[in-house]
Amino acid sequence: MEIRDAHFPGRAPLDAYGGGGFRFAGMSHLGSILCVPSGIHGWNAAGFEDLDITAFQRFFDEQQDIEVVLVGTGKDLRPLPADLKQAFRDAGMMVDSMSTGAAVRTFNVMLSEERAVAAALLAVD
Question: Which CDD domains does the entry link to (predicted)?
């Protein structure tokens, strides 16, 4: 049996969040997610302490198709470390942290406007 990383191959608005996961495209995912141009991927980050440069590698791999990165930091807004923000700037991406709920709402609006947006969203209960 082959076990693959969670992945939805496409861009889709997020229908719901909470209960430790997300709903989108008629499916649900338990845990955190990354929304990038190549699709929606499961993300191993469980909490704010997991947010380092390696946790965001997929964004740097797809940077040519991303202008804005939204980071949902959980129930509360937490500012990203300066070195992480600088790495995004150096790669030509604007990064903004906010609570996961605010990031989900902002992602959906920007996606509907066909903006080059991506999101890293920590799951919340």
Answer: Mth938-like (cd00248)
